[in-house]
């Protein structure tokens, strides 16, 4: 590129990100590809950097390079501010994605990152369920009727062909009722709201917890043999015995989880209750065939996803290419007046 040449980048709003074809089918495909690349060492995944602003909220900064068919650099800036809806009428989660050319280091795109975050997190549970849940699972339990709780069920619906029923529990009953109505209509699935976490989890074949809880919600006694448990939240959502009584324990990125230090597995590791040997494997190792997934219908399998910046960057890159094809967004000149 000659000195003085233009550097163009494409800006995409949240509506344009969605309009570029971001759906759960795409998210599942991309996340599985990224996990495979991670197992093969074809990525650069620094630990998350965080800005803890106390009661106001926190910001995570997640840089990454994804190889393979993506070959792109990027960064996600994601803010989680729980008081936003009540105080300012704003979403509690807002994010921004930046993509860059790995040869030149020049920016390619800037786009909303909140929808990408929600979809790739749901897709991580979906990919895990594809490999680790019983494929004859018919009942799902969703703890947490948030946006993230919605994408969890969206993903499970796609990967578990025999799923017939879902139950949802939330500390705000009205939120659970609204979730049940919306998701029943959207997925063609029987979704019911329940009054207690026990009623939600007991007898479920697949369990996903997507909350901001920092103390146990799910008791070990409620989790049945043959189940698949996906811990999605940022802190502790289940009793330690849920982990200790599982037959296999999988993660997306063990090093990243220990660095973050806030989820159940990391808390147990810090307390000396488990060591590295409790981790059966990373999900990518299962995908590439280096580790076995589910070995029997009776296994209780526990999965926890810390969230990988590579997933965000790769999914944003797929959206960027489709937006270019459709002519969506605003093209900006970085060096222009």
Task: Write up what this structure looks like.
There is one protein chain. The protein has 337 residues and is of the alpha/beta class. The chain has two domains: 8-116 and 310-333, ornithine cyclodeaminase, domain 1 (2-Layer Sandwich); 125-307, NAD(P)-binding Rossmann-like Domain (Rossmann fold, 3-Layer(aba) Sandwich), CATH 3.40.50.720. 36% of the residues lie in helices and 23% in strands. It has helices at residues 14-19, 24-39, 84-88, 114-132, 147-159, 173-187, 197-201, 240-244, 254-260, 264-270, 283-287, 309-326, and strands spanning 8-12, 43-44, 49-52, 58-66, 72-80, 93-100, 107-112, 139-143, 165-169, 190-193, 206-209, 228-231, 248-251, 281-282, 301-304, 330-333. Strands 1, 2, 3, 4, 5, 6, 7 and 16 form an eight-stranded mixed β-sheet that branches. Strand 8, helix 5 and strand 9 (165-169) form a beta-alpha-beta unit. Helix 2 crosses helix 12, helix 4 (114-132) runs parallel beside helix 5 and helix 9 packs across helix 10 (264-270). The longest helix has 19 residues, at 114-132. The protein is globular. It starts with 7 loop residues before the first strand and ends with a strand. The mean pLDDT is 95.
Topology, pairings included?
Blueprint: E1 8-12, H1 14-19, H2 24-39, E2 43-44, E3 49-52, E4 58-66, E5 72-80, H3 84-88, E6 93-100, E7 107-112, H4 114-132, E8 139-143, H5 147-159, E9 165-169, H6 173-187, E10 190-193, H7 197-201, E11 206-209, E12 228-231, H8 240-244, E13 248-251, H9 254-260, H10 264-270, E14 281-282, H11 283-287, E15 301-304, H12 309-326, E16 330-333
Parallel strand pairs: 1-7, 8-9, 8-11, 9-10, 11-12, 12-15, 13-14, 13-15
Antiparallel strand pairs: 1-16, 2-4, 3-4, 4-5, 5-6, 6-7
Helix pairs in contact: 2-4, 2-12, 4-5, 9-10
């Amino acid at each position: 590129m000659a000195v003085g040449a233009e550097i163009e980048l494409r800006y995409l709003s949240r509506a344009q990100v969605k309009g570029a074809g971001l759906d759960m089918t795409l998210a599942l495909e991309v996340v599985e590809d990224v996990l495979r690349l991670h197992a093969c060492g074809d990525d650069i995944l620094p630990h998350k950097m965080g800005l803890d602003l106390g009661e106001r909220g926190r910001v995570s900064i997640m840089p990454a390079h994804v190889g393979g068919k993506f070959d792109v650099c990027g960064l996600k800036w994601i803010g989680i501010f729980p008081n936003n809806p009540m105080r300012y009428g704003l979403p509690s989660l807002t994010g921004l994605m930046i993509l860059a050319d790995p040869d030149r280091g020049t920016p390619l795109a800037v786009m909303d990152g909140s929808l990408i975050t929600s979809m790739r997190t749901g897709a991580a549970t979906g990919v895990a369920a594809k490999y680790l849940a019983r494929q004859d699972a018919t009942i799902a339990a969703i703890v947490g009727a948030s946006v993230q709780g919605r994408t969890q069920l969206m993903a499970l619906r796609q990967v578990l062909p025999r799923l017939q029923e879902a139950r949802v529990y939330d500390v705000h009953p009205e939120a659970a009722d609204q979730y049940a109505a919306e998701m029943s209509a959207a997925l063609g699935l029987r979704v019911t709201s329940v009054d207690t976490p026990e009623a939600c989890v007991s007898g479920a074949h697949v369990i996903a917890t997507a909350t901001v809880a920092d103390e146990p919600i799910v008791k070990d006694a409620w989790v049945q043999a043959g189940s698949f448990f996906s811990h999605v939240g940022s802190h502790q959502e289940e009793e330690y015995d849920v982990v200790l009584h599982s037959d296999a324990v999988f993660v997306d990125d063990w090093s990243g989880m220990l660095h973050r230090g806030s989820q159940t597995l990391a808390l147990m590791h810090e307390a000396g209750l488990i060591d590295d040997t409790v981790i059966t494997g990373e999900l990518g190792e299962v995908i590439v065939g280096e580790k076995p997934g589910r070995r029997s219908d009776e296994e209780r399998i526990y999965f926890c996803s810390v969230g990988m910046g590579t997933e965000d960057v790769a999914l944003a890159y797929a959206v960027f290419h489709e937006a270019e094809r459709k002519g969506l967004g605003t093209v900006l000149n970085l060096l222009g007046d």
